[in-house]
């Protein structure tokens, strides 16, 4: 799904069709009588359309519908209600509608309804679907809010939003006074934002006795939730059809080969139904996609063509939308093969799925606070994830699940529950948010699973280095402004620094481009050379951050001078660029610029292209990313991190890799420990510039290394005045350790 392409429809264009008797009556008495007999929608006062009644019958067939009376009764009598149900039982679409009915019955005296989702595409799809079921207009009575897109008005009764957006709303409205009912959906996904909301809402519920909280979860987490929130009512939705499960234990040695063999065997069997395949990682998706497309063309045409639909992990999933040609093929031919990885369970909605293939392992990002980097770790999925994948077939009595692992493996090697993101991720942004909320008296957060103390201390230390905290461990003025930006704190700090260095426009472009998905298209086999030739036209000698500015400026020029959107898409296609990602970058940049204007930060005229501007951009980048520096230790492209002893190479798409020029010192945006230790989005910097801009107490805490010795020599050659000032600053910081100065309540 391309969330950046979705627009809030105009109410006039979305006007529902009225019965023919109304249109043809022309003031006739029969028409007036027919109008009086029509049932009116209480949410907008208009007559229900015929589609409403058709969808109502479908809703009444959902497993959760039988629990409506019980739910409404518990909602009236209790402040918290937990709803337990399998995937596709209807809890995500029906419970919010019932809550909207409750708010309507009390005339919205306490506010409307908000329902959180972990995934952006799910929030959008649910809003569209529920608006249709309620027979109202999307963007009016029902809307959605996702990062960098708001499709709601002040009159919206029911809004779907991502959990991180509701969390951000608490910064301006800590007690969420706009809502009478808050629904936390898919709590079993254990996203960091949902876990934080679970903790903070405990205090909000005490402050607002009239507020209702609904928690939707799969059955696996119910016992933990019950002990976390105490004795609260539980609505349990009965299980659906049993699913045939086939364990293929011998397939674990070569899972990709086994997956491909199964796909072709199912297709050649002639059994109807789409196939969903859960693979371990994005690389497996790409390999499977290429092979199935190649081999599929050689199969018996009487069986129909296999239409392969790759769903990439979360950062790329939002960009997926089948082309018009693919959609036509899906209607003509009989089988789709959906390739996905990790937690894509909640994104699979189609009732046409009859087969699921599960490899039983996933590649997860696990953050290591000691080295400030993610490690890509391949490990078994949890038992709850395995069960969720089975539930995709829950509405089909003839579905079949192929598990490429043994029952013993599931019992012994799989953890019961999916690990909480809070225990595996970088906590810097979360801690910044909690520090900001503490201003409103909500800093204490009772987590369902407490994060590791080491991760918390690393987050506090990073915020201290970024000058986001004062000497008492509270947010500084810098920290308060940084929290206004929906970005990584390091990027926020770079934007603030760009105000001092007169390069705000350029820094906003960089921030938008690195926040949006990659602007480079996934290349078809054999197109690599042509793509590199095109990309060379955008290369900037100062580094990849500058190349991204060139690409964005070229995209903007084409967009401004083109007569149609098709011309822009063609230009992107010709240059092997991702048009959807560039559109998203444009949206992100516009919102960041709006924030800069709202908080009245100084913004100089753009001067991209001059040497002084290039130096200023590097100064702004270094002000936020001084912890992400690496040095080429042998002159052959082996970069040693300044903060630890990991060695990495430049990514093949880096401008330096393409031009074969390897700078000695680089600032990088991303680094993950994996099979290929690549640093991504790099720009050359000088050690002198680093020593001028990195906090002295950060430099003093670096581990001993040859790189640190070189930097010491650089510091000795700097002017005595600047050295004295640095030593004074260092002395000011030395008496107190980070642990003493930074505490989290």
Automatic annotation (TrEMBL):
Keyword annotations from UniProtKB, A to Z: Acetylation, ATP-binding, Helicase, Hydrolase, Mitochondrion, Nucleotide-binding, Nucleus
Matching SUPFAM superfamilies: P-loop containing nucleoside triphosphate hydrolases
CDD domains, per database record: DEXHc_DHX32, SF2_C_RHA
GO terms assigned for molecular function: ATP binding; hydrolase activity; RNA binding; RNA helicase activity
Domain Helicase ATP-binding: 72-238
Main location: mitochondrion
Similarity comment: Belongs to the DEAD box helicase family. DEAH subfamily.
Name this polypeptide is given: Putative pre-mRNA-splicing factor ATP-dependent RNA helicase DHX32
Name of the gene: DHX32
């Amino acid at each position: 799904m391309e969330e950046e392409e979705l627009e809030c429809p105009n109410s006039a264009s979305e006007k529902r069709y009225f019965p023919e008797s109304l249109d043809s009556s022309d003031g006739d008495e029969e028409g007036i009588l027919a109008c009086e007999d029509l049932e009116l929608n209480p949410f907008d006062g208009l007559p229900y359309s015929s589609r409403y009644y058709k969808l109502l019958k479908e809703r009444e067939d959902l497993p959760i519908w039988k629990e409506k009376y019980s739910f409404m009764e518990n909602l009236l009598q209790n402040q918290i209600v937990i709803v337990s149900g399998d995937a596709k039982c209807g809890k995500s679409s029906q419970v919010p509608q019932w809550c909207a009915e409750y708010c309507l019955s009390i005339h919205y005296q306490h506010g409307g309804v908000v329902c959180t989702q972990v995934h952006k595409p799910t929030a959008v799809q649910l809003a569209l679907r529920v608006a249709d079921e309620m027979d109202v207009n999307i963007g009016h009575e029902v809307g959605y809010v996702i990062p960098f897109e708001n499709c709601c008005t002040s009159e919206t009764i029911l809004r779907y939003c991502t959990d991180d957006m509701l969390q951000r709303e608490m910064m301006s409205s800590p007690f969420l006074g706009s809502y009478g009912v808050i629904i936390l959906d898919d709590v079993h996904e254990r996203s960091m934002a949902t876990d934080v909301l679970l903790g903070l809402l405990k205090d909000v519920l005490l402050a607002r006795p009239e507020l209702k909280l609904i928690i939707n979860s799969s059955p696996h987490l119910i016992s933990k939730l019950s002990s976390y929130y105490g004795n609260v009512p539980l609505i349990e939705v009965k299980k659906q059809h049993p699913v045939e499960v086939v364990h293929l234990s011998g397939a674990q040695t070569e899972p990709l080969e086994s997956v491909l063999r199964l796909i072709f065997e199912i297709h050649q069997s002639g059994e109807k139904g789409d196939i969903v395949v859960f693979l371990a990682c994005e690389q497996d998706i790409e390999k499977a996609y290429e092979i199935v497309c190649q081999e599929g063309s050689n199969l018996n045409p009487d069986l129909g063509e296999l239409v392969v639909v790759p769903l990439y992990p979360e950062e790329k999933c939002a960009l997926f939308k089948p082309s018009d040609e693919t959609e036509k093929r899906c209607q003509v031919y009989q089988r789709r093969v959906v390739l996905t990885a990790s937690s894509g369970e909640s994104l699979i909605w189609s009732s046409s799925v009859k087969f699921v293939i599960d490899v039983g392992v996933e590649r997860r990002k696990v953050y290591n606070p000691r080295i400030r980097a993610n490690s890509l770790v391949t490990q078994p999925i949890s038992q709850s994830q395995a069960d969720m994948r089975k539930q995709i077939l829950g509405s089909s009595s003839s579905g079949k699940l192929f598990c490429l692992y043994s029952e013993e493996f599931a019992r012994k090697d799989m953890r019961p529950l999916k690990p909480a993101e809070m225990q595996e991720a970088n906590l810097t942004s979360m801690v910044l948010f909690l520090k900001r909320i503490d201003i409103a008296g909500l800093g204490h957060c009772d987590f369902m699973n407490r994060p590791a103390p080491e991760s918390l201390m690393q987050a506090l230390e990073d915020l201290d280095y970024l000058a986001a905290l004062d000497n008492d461990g509270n947010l500084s003025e810098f920290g308060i402004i940084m929290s206004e930006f929906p970005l990584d704190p390091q990027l926020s700090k770079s934007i603030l620094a760009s105000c001092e260095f007169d390069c705000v426009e350029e820094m906003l472009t960089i921030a938008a481009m690195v926040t949006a998905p990659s602007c480079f298209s996934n290349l078809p086999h054999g197109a690599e050379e042509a793509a590199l030739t095109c990309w060379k036209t955008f290369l900037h000698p100062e580094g990849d951050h500058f190349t991204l500015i060139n690409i964005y400026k070229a995209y903007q020029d084409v967009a401004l001078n083109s007569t149609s959107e098709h011309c822009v898409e063609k230009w992107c296609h010709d240059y092997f660029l991702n048009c959807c990602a560039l559109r998203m970058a444009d949206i992100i940049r516009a919102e960041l610029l709006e924030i800069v204007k709202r908080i009245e930060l100084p913004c100089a005229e753009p001067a991209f292209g001059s040497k002084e501007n290039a130096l200023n951009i590097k100064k702004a980048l270094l002000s936020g990313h001084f912890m992400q520096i690496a040095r080429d230790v042998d002159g052959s492209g082996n970069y040693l991190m300044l903060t630890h002893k990991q060695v990495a190479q430049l990514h093949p798409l880096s401008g330096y890799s393409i031009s074969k020029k390897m700078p000695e010192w680089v600032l990088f945006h991303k680094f993950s420990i994996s099979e290929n230790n690549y640093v991504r989005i790099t720009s050359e910097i000088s050690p002198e510039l680093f020593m001028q801009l990195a906090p002295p107490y950060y430099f003093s805490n670096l581990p001993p290394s040859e790189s640190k010795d070189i930097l010491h020599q650089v510091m000795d050659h700097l002017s005595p005045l600047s050295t004295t000032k640095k030593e004074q600053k260092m002395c000011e910081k030395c008496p107190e350790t980070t642990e003493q100065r930074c505490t989290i309540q």
